[in-house]
From TrEMBL:
The lineage of its organism: Bacteria, Bacillati, Actinomycetota, Actinomycetes, Pseudonocardiales. It comes from Kutzneria albida DSM 43870. This is Uncharacterized protein. It comes from the Bacteria.
Length: 121
């Protein structure tokens, strides 16, 4: 798989020309988000996960399956979901970028759901 650092400017421009919504992921990367692609057995990206952490154990997350299938959420330090939305990649990235920092008095604080707990057997 080609890493971001090995992409030429021409490849970058060609990818954005073919998939303009990729710019939204670049916006998140430039804002400090970390990305974790999910690959199938052949090495093709089938899903992209991204996360940004905040002080105090808060985290924002993004899951993208396609430009029309994305989900964003924010969790508190206990794994409680305080904000969640489904939509297009562009809609969800716009919402995540404008979501107030967890310390802001206008940020969502009320837990609306619990994230599933990971079990290690």
């Amino acid at each position: 798989m080609v890493g971001v650092d090995t992409v030429t400017p021409q490849q970058h421009a060609a990818a954005l020309a073919e998939f303009p919504a990729l710019q939204r992921l670049i916006d998140l990367r430039d804002a400090g988000w970390m990305f974790l692609p999910t690959l199938d057995a052949g090495g093709t990206v089938i899903e992209v996960h991204s996360v940004r952490t905040w002080p105090g154990g808060w985290a924002d997350a993004l899951r993208v399956r396609y430009t029309t299938d994305a989900r964003g959420l924010r969790t508190d330090h206990t794994g409680g979901i305080t904000w969640q939305q489904d939509g297009t990649l562009e809609e969800i990235v716009d919402e995540l970028i404008t979501l107030p920092a967890p310390s802001d008095r206008h940020a969502p604080q009320l837990v609306i759901a619990q994230t599933p707990m990971l079990r290690i057997a």
